[in-house]
Model the fold of this input.
Amino acid sequence: MKEVRNNIYISLRKENGRTFIETLSVLLILILLGVGCFSLSMSTFGAYQRLNDSKEKNTELRVANSFVMNKIRQNDIKGSLDVKSHPITGNNALVIYENINGEEYETWIFHNSGYLMEALVLKNEEPSIDVSQTIAKVDSFQIDYNIIDHMIFTSVGINGIKPYNSVIKIRAK
Amino acid sequence: MKSNKKGFTLIEMVIAIGILAVLAVGIMRLFLTSQVSHQKAVDLDYAVLETNALIERFQDIKGSPGNGSSFTIYYNDKWERTNIIESNIQYAIYGDLAKLSDDKAGLLHLDLRVVRLKPYILEKNGENEIYKISVIIEDLSYWGEDK
Done:
């Protein structure tokens, strides 16, 4: 009788504890939960970063394209617009001729070292980088002037996304 | 009597994973919505650029169409011009060009409508209108090119 009571006691004690397989299952579920949380936060971070990068790139392109288009439209006066090779970078640049208080000025809009830049200088003065200010962070800027059709073609681009191409017809001939 | 139940039960763990799954779905949906709205903004940008370029090119038009003419330009998912035969057509610009009226000779009416042919993620609409513009342009054959 005493032996039977001891066996029941041992059996009860076993039921109160945990088996190895139970502990292992709980650990596995905990690891699963941890991995799930980690991968979720990492993918969320990655997705947010990609989305934000893309938005920023498009904003820069929008700013650059809008700036160039507005400059052309505002200065669509006979003899005010030209496309010339920039003396420092060698790339095509938009040149706007202005007369401010009797002085002849030139505004150069060009691309240099990953930025769209603008320089306001006296006529025949070199539009150096020191006197230029940055407009937008873009990887490329191309501009061409078709004198026969009176059209200016522009393209601003950032690596990885389609460039913003624009065509503008010059009204002042 | 002292309880020996420390830690989590299977039910608690399942509930925790369930809550995590619901949260994950919510976050994914949030990101997808954000992605779609960004895509719509980008589409609007390219739609405006393409229609503006078309309008500028139409400033050179010489000779008005008889009873009006329609045209369609197709684009792929990267906003590159493509033809109807290609399967990855994603956007289209529908254009209509007609005389403004008989008493307003020399003026043409140009209607442009940009649509996305495939639905955005999480949306069911087959054809989404992105941008629409109507302009009046001059027929150079009437006015002369050096007017």
About this structure: Residues 50 and 56 of chain A are 10 Å apart (CA to CA). Residues 1-173 of chain A form one domain.
